[in-house]
Amino acid sequence: MTAAQADLQIDRPRVADGAALWRIARDSKVLDLNSSYSYLIWCRDFAATSAVARDERGEPVGFVTGYVRPDRPDTLLVWQVAVDEAYRGRRLAAALLDGLAARTVAERGLTTLETTISPDNTASQRLFTSFAERHGARLEREVLFDTGLFPDGPHEPEVLYRIGPLRATAR
Fold first, then answer.
1. pLDDT computed for residue 26 by the predictor
2. pTM
């Protein structure tokens, strides 16, 4: 953790964090916004595979949501990453992602991390490419969902980023 992150705590989300996660996602203006209900459920059912950054008051200022793929129990799929605008530029997204990966590798033996990124989201492309580099892991990319699969209007394709193998790190 850098000096700019020293006043922040990274841990598992709680149900009470759901509304704040929804607001952070909404205010990002980049993420596909899910219903507020889905963030509450996520904080309840997927807390073990998600992470939240809290400020000195304990309020969420960033998050990573993820889940273990049912058909690939060694794979963590990262669903969303978002940081409150006031906390951007501190490498908080990278710290959240590193912390979540370390925890899930240690607790669950996961070896692979996946996410999908649209071609116009250069910030996420940089985040996950640098994650693979920091962890000495291979990065593979392929289109997972082409534009024509989305029924709700124009949507860029979603490119699958598969990163692995991940290894446990000494703490």
1. 96
2. 0.92
